[in-house]
Model the fold of this input.
Amino acid sequence: MYALRDLLGEMSLCRSAESIRKGKPVPTVTIDGCKVRVKKDATILDAAKKAGIWIPTLCYHPAVSSEASCRLCMVELDRGEWRQLVTACNYPVRRDIVVYVSSERAQQARRGVMELLLARAPESEELKALAERMGVKETRYPNVTESQRNCILCGLCVQVCEEIIGKAAIGFAGRGAERVVAAPFRQPSEDCIGCGACAAICPVGTIKVRFHKEEQEVEISPFKSRAKLLVCQECGALITSTLVNEQALTKANLNSEEFRARLRLCPKCRRLQTVAQLGAVTFRKK
Amino acid sequence: MLRICKVIQNMAQDNNILEQIVDRYDGEVGMLIPMMQDIQAEYGYLPLDQLHALAKRLELPLSRLYAVATFYSSFRLAPKGAHDVTLCVGTVCYLKGSGAISEAICREFRVEPGGTTPDRLFTFQAVNCVGACAVAPVMIVDGKYYGGVTTASALEVISGLAKDKAAVQKEGEI
Amino acid sequence: MTVLSNKRLNSISDLDDMRKELLSLRSPSAKSVHVCTGPGCAAKGSPKLYELFCEAAQQADADVEIIPKAVGCHGLCEYGPIVLIQPGDIFYQRVEEPDVAEIFRETVVGGRLVERLLYENPVTGQKAETVDKIPFYKVQKRIALAYNGLVDPTKITDYIALGGYSALAKVLSSMTDEDVISEVETAGLRGRGGGGFPTARKWRSCKEAEGSPRYVICNGDEGDPGAFMDRAIMEGNPHSVIEGMLIGAYAIGSSDGYIYVRNEYPLSVERLKLAIEQAKELGLLGENILGSSFSFDIRINRGAGAFVCGESTALMASLQGRTGEPRAKYIHTVESGLWEKPTNLNNVETWANVPAIINGGGKSFASIGTEKSKGTKVFSLVGKVVNSGLVEVPMGMTLRQIIDEVGGGIRDGKRFKAVQTGGPSGGCIPEEHLDARVDFDELTKLGSMMGSGGMIVMDEDTCMVNVAKYFTNFLQKESCGKCTPCREGLSQMLYILDRITDGEGQAGDLERLEELAELLEGTALCALGKTAANPTMSTIRYFRDEYEAHIKEKRCPAKECRGLFRYEIDSEACKACGICLKNCPVGAITGEKKVAHVIDQEKCTLCGICWEKCPFAAVLKV
Done:
């Protein structure tokens, strides 16, 4: 029964605050029989990577913090008399532990979670490919929850926008099965800079970046947020969102007019300009 | 001209109210939910412009306030009805038939739990346990408790609200 | 020093002096009338009774002192409104407004009993004059609820007069933080909110964690439907919680406390606010409490309507102005909790037990209960029992004892079917296990749990499949939606249960439910998800035949699931009064005077209004 087991788990963790605090500086993780040493507070996933053992993940990305919400990376943790299922991407290793990735129970847990995801998002090619790799060919569950274009609510887009870009233009809304990722009040966001980081990090192809040539705007679909695109001074090609440039300039603290001038050119024209400038310089031979 | 003045006056008032609310909690971000509860107590719901203003004042992204406003059941993003009808669908009340009563109310008055009737007569909430299980099923109308309700008696009480409204309107006409 | 000036208490002897003075102000011949204004009685209009008693007391002769009090929940809510007269412990039940004058005249002034208002044992017919003669109260042992019914929760002086805050005084004057933790450890106190974690161990871990400040939180987000124990404590004696938190904070080394009260309990918030104000005025909260170097303050935050905020990490997220989403507990909240600082969270009832443990000693507390579950537990015994209300009994009492001896058995002459314990995280226990002892571990072995103490008694007319559906629906709506298994898994389970109760069950449904249950238990992120399948699994375990009747025969044996049973009029019993005909919303009933009425099954929408309205019980569920 969960309650009793988890209580035991909690009690063993609280056994001595002292030992938890100090822990071992370089604990050993025995993962599917393979021993690797990791830095204290590294995760089981880090240990698995070091050991060359693949654990499927969806909501994990090294650039943002691990919320472990998708529950795909379940592995078994040896607790002596019993084994506890834990998520590999955020379980902190503080002393020597033994982990089973390929055990029957761990595999069944991961497959079960994937089946639920496939039921929710039946049309994502990326999800299907991941499922194949895990050995899950199909799902036995019907589609009972609605997803916007296969969104699995992993939250990576929300996290990247808040933690990395610093704009938090999108967030979660609603609760439970009604939960969605949306811009506030389902209106195009005023904070979105049109960088497309959300689209880049989305693991299931829900978010797309669309260029609108006539309006010279970039749109992040499905949030409907738009940003004006910079147009190349030389050739008129659409480059990137003006807001992205502003953000980059502010963050990188580069405000010289020379740098700003370069940003007004598309990559191709910039290269041409560079070559032209280099041509005016003599290279000293050694 | 007068209208513009009134609008500006209202905006200034709203600003004042918001400042008072934020000051009440020393502008602490952790007290966001109590602040939003106070705004809702003031306006009857969470107006969009107030949320914008609060986000700016606390230097929080608007997406955070929207997430909080849509996560917790008690927050309303639209104005509420003239009356408050709350039906308990906690275990005991449910076992004594409040599920069927809820369905009947929704059907009869064309409202969903959490929503307001088309004529704004009342806002209907189906909540989980008001702690008066001994007199289940329980319905609360404008703060008044009705214990041991049945489908028929619940519909009767609510219809009474409409009649009251009609009576008041009629009196007004005279 | 006069107590009436409510001057700040600057030392422990100030507190003792105040207590002595309060007691001396009470004349020995004074009488008090305690009117219960707890949630159950208040719903039946008891606040008005209190007002009437106050009026009567004012108009009475000046020679006898009569003190009306509005007190907290006594527990026997079924028989509310309840009025107690002291001295004498005289217990009046089902008191109505016209009774007030008689009670005042006869009992309060005249010292005579009003027989018809006394509790009458439904089996023996015997009348009980005093509280201790009532079976419901005889077996109870009240520690957490000790002061409910004795104190007016809006007057801190009542609590102090009866010994309140003496535990705090004892701690500040003669105990170290380790002494306090030792005492709680000896007592064997375990969390009363459902988790049952050893309280002393939690306090010690928090005390030893690195980081500052440390926070102390009271979880008043009692969300289990059918449970109102914490509400009764917060509204009936908020000071017990405050005193408990003070003692805990002292032991842990915290000066910042929070009480998180669910939004649906506005009166609890009011009472706690008032209690905190009054405690602050006297210097029992704030800086340099009772002249010591210990400072502690408490803030109250209200929930905003989310059951999941009863989970500790979700509660803390809410206190940080975020959505109530739980997080992984691989790093415990005692190490990194609110604002990532060491945080100790305990339930209302847990805190309420602390002063008693300090006053009476840990050994005394540990002498009650079973080997691993010490002390008492407050249960909300509701549903189809004769005496529904709040009861506090020693751990280890059997379900049968609680339901029969305290609860008075099943009402309306029906048969017992199951008792649902532990709220949505718990399960249903059938008749064959009624002799199980109620404590933290026994019920868990049977597929349920004691949880926070909700006990919902169900009779033969309850469809167990519908019960599973009810709880699954509740959890699916309250799920925060962050993790896949809970959000998707519960939706899948609900989909299956909906089909079964709609008469569209398929072969393999039960196996599918069992698979989903295992997945939820193993992979969900928090306790809500991990225990969410308990109601379904326990009902399948003990009532599989009911599920199979629904699936294979499209029949609901308990006649609850709409469409899986019919309404028919018993022609023998029908008196042709025509009430059903008049009330049928679709005109499905035909009949004339003196001719038994008939329901046209084709037209019938199974709304049940005819069944409700028939004065002769001639409409049958078939």
